[in-house]
């Protein structure tokens, strides 16, 4: 349909609704700020057809501080359908007028009575096909419910005080099937605080327990066909739930009962089973801020390596494998970012249609984008019913898929090269509620014009190329200060792990520390995120400083060769393997390195280092700890002097000769004394001489 005709259609619908009145009611609004919410819980049939009766049920909740009386619910539908997606978008841009005409025939609306503050009431409206007064043309009919009521002043407006809208397709048989699929994101809703514990342990437990948001979302996702579902997993969620079960990173004073731990275990088991069932897409640990990494190329490599390690460690632990995928924020995509994320070319990036201004539905939801580093796949998300009134429900999700598929198959009738599909991704924060089964989501994949298709299967097909521009990013990424603090965690952690023989667990924990401060979530609390990153960097450095080396203040050798003691102290909680290397102030002297030795946790070891000064008289040495890969780590010992007290050879000879002379003199003197003594003893006593 041409643009002028679309404008005429929208204007016509606006006029119909604006001029619609109910006799006997004033035209002015009774309450200028009605605060009620409406949720559509069921709609049948899911596809409109002659002879059917449209039945819609749901709930109305009064959030005003006063009651509403004589509340009524009316079905609303236009006479003519939308046949293209652009018509829907134009109508939404023009406000609520596109909803249609209110059906006021007797027996077609529901009298709810009075609605007290904070009260919720159910509604049910039934309208036979003939009373819809529609043209019966093929297309997508917006259908909804409008709530009317009387305020405390007794005034009742013809304007709805609340409304909700969805879509109802009318498509005959014989049309081409189009791909239909749902992406189910499971993200970690919680974060670690300044002390390392999760800030809302009870909230996470509530989310994964029966009736919780994540539990309901998983149950709904598991009810759909394997061919029509793709799990999008944040490994941080797997680790977080497992931490709950093991009581790890749980604040002091929070005690989980065996029943609560069992609930968490059931969720973890069911999530893994769902993800393994049809293949999954895997985000980087805690959904990292890839724009911030791309904007800081000097820090990107070590930080990306840490994120990858945290991700891989979680996947290995839980025996889950999937395709790596990146998910920037809605307005945080740039062409340079896509270039950096391209990698090997098989890792998709999830973007919104706002990021690709020239993208059109006819290209399909999965397109190929060519970067300077080569082509890569993009999943473009574009919600049909974004901005329509009412709360999201399983019914609105089902009708969104069916309506997208209906519009896509109608487009292919006039554009055979169109690749339009019905792929949608749900909001990760959406709670389908415990009564999700009433929405009959499976009906979306049973229509004659839908073909259940997983994203993995779509990537095996030729993709349409997107050659347009990428919009400029307007989202503000994480600060460089936060990234630098995370990089310091990497540096200190790398040094520490290099001296721990069994360092996998230490490396994985440090990688999680790094990834946990690089998530998109920290954009909302940049100060807190940076403070936590700096604290973790300080802790990693403090742990490394627990490994110390001590040398003597000075050493004096009795010759050119000798030894001196070196003491290594390990106050960490891990056994280490470390060697020693020396710097000498005398370039002519080299002291051999000490081979690495094992030192237990909390122990110290003193070793003797042999040295040969050769012809040198003295030198100043500095001892450094050395890892098994040859890198110096930690702080060196204080410099100390080593000198030799050796005496020259000539002096030694002279001293030897002098000693011999002294010895000879002593022997001679002793011999003379003995002879005189003997002569005196042999002389007669009366000898007169």
**Number of domain units:** 5
Question: Could you tell me the number of beta strands?
Answer: 27
What share of residues are in beta strands?
25-35%
For the record, what CATH class of the largest domain applies? Alpha Beta
Average pLDDT across residues?
A: 89
* Count of helical regions: 15
Structural class: alpha/beta
The CATH architecture of the largest domain can be named as Alpha-Beta Barrel
Helix proportion of residues, in percent?
25-40%
Q: What fold name stands as the CATH topology of the largest domain?
A: TIM Barrel
Could you give the distance between the termini? 165 Å
Radius of gyration using CA atoms only: 41 Å
Transmembrane segments: 649-667
Pfam family, one: DUF6049
InterPro entries: DUF6049, Ig-like_fold, TAT_signal
Keywords: Membrane, Signal, Transmembrane, Transmembrane helix
How does the SSE layout of this entry go?
Blueprint: H1 3-19, E1 36-44, E2 53-62, E3 68-77, H2 85-93, E4 101-102, E5 110-115, E6 120-128, E7 139-150, E8 162-170, E9 178-186, H3 201-208, H4 213-222, E10 229-233, H5 235-246, H6 258-278, E11 280-282, H7 290-295, H8 297-317, E12 322-324, H9 335-341, E13 349-352, E14 366-371, E15 374-381, H10 394-414, E16 422-425, E17 450-452, H11 455-459, E18 464-466, H12 480-497, H13 504-516, H14 526-544, E19 547-550, E20 554-557, E21 561-570, E22 576-584, E23 594-599, E24 604-612, E25 618-626, E26 632-633, E27 640-644, H15 649-682
Parallel strand pairs: 9-10, 9-16, 9-17, 10-11, 11-12, 13-15, 14-18, 20-27
Antiparallel strand pairs: 1-2, 2-6, 3-4, 3-5, 3-7, 7-8, 14-15, 19-21, 21-24, 22-23, 22-25, 25-26, 25-27
Keywords: Membrane, Signal, Transmembrane, Transmembrane helix
Transmembrane segments: 649-667
Signal peptide: 1-29
């Amino acid at each position: 349909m041409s643009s002028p005709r679309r404008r005429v259609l929208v204007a016509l619908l606006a006029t119909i609704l604006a001029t619609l009145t109910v006799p006997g009611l004033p035209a002015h609004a009774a309450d200028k700020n009605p605060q009620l919410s409406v949720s559509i819980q069921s709609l049948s049939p899911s596809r409109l057809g002659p002879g059917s009766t449209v039945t819609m049920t749901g709930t109305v909740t009064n959030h005003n501080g006063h009651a509403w009386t004589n509340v009524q619910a009316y079905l609303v539908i236009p006479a003519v359908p939308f046949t293209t997606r652009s018509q829907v978008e134009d109508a939404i841009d023009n406000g609520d007028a596109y909803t249609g005409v209110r059906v006021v025939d007797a027996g077609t609306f529901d009298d709810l009575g009075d609605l007290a503050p904070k009260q919720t009431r159910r509604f049910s409206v039934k309208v036979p096909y003939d009373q819809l007064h529609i043209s019966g043309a093929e297309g997508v009919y917006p259908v909804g419910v409008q709530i009317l009521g009387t305020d405390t002043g007794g005034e009742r407006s013809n304007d709805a005080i609340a409304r909700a809208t969805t879509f109802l397709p009318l498509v005959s048989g014989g049309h081409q099937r189009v791909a239909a699929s749902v992406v189910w994101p499971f993200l970690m809703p919680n974060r670690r605080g300044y002390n390392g514990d999760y800030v809302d342990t009870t909230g996470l437990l509530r989310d994964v327990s029966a009736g919780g948001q994540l539990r309901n979302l998983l149950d709904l996702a598991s009810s759909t066909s394997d061919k029509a579902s793709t799990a999008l997993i944040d490994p941080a969620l797997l680790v977080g739930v497992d931490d709950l079960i093991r009581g790890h990173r749980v604040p002091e004073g929070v005690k989980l009962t065996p029943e609560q731990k069992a609930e968490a275990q059931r969720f973890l088991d069911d999530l893994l089973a769902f993800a393994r069932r049809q293949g999954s897409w895997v985000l980087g640990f805690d959904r990292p801020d890839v724009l911030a990494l791309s904007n800081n190329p000097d820090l990107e490599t070590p930080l990306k390596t840490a994120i990858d390690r945290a991700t891989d460690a979680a996947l290995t632990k839980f025996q889950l494998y999937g395709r790596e995928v990146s998910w920037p924020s809605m307005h945080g995509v740039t062409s340079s970012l896509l270039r950096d994320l391209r990698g090997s070319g098989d890792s998709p990036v999830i973007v919104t249609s706002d990021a690709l201004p020239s993208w059109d539905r006819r290209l399909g939801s999965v397109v190929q984008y060519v970067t300077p580093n080569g082509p890569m796949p993009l999943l473009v998300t574009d919600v049909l019913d974004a901005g329509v009134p009412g709360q999201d429900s399983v019914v609105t999700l089902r009708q969104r898929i069916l309506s997208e598929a209906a519009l896509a198959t109608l487009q292919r009738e006039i554009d055979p090269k169109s690749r339009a599909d019905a792929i949608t991704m749900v909001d990760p924060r959406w709670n389908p509620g415990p009564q999700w089964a009433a929405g009959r989501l499976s009906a979306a994949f049973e229509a004659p014009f839908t073909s259940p298709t997983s994203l993995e299967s779509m990537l095996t097909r030729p993709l349409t190329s997107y050659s347009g521009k990428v919009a400029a990013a307007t989202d503000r990424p994480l600060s460089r200060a936060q990234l630098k603090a995370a990089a310091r965690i990497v540096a200190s952690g790398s040094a520490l792990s290099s001296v721990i023989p069994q360092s996998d667990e230490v490396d994985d924990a440090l990688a999680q520390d790094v990834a946990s401060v690089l998530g998109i979530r920290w954009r909302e609390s940049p100060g807190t995120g940076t403070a936590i990153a700096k604290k973790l960097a300080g802790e990693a450095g403090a742990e490394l400083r627990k490994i110390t080396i001590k040398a003597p203040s000075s050493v004096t050798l009795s010759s050119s060769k000798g030894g001196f003691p070196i003491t290594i102290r390990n106050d960490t909680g891990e056994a280490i393997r470390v060697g020693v290397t020396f710097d000498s102030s005398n370039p002519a002297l080299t002291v051999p390195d000490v081979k690495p030795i094992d030192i237990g946790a909390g122990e110290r070891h003193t070793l003797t280092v042999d040295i040969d000064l050769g012809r040198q008289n003295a030198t100043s040495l500095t001892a450094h700890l050395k890892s098994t890969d040859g890198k110096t780590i930690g702080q060196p010992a204080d410099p100390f002097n080593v000198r030799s007290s050796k005496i020259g050879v000539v002096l030694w000879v002279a001293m030897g000769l002098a000693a011999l002379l002294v010895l000879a003199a002593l022997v001679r003197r002793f011999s003379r004394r003995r002879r005189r003594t003997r002569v005196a003893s042999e002389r007669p006593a009366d000898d007169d001489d």
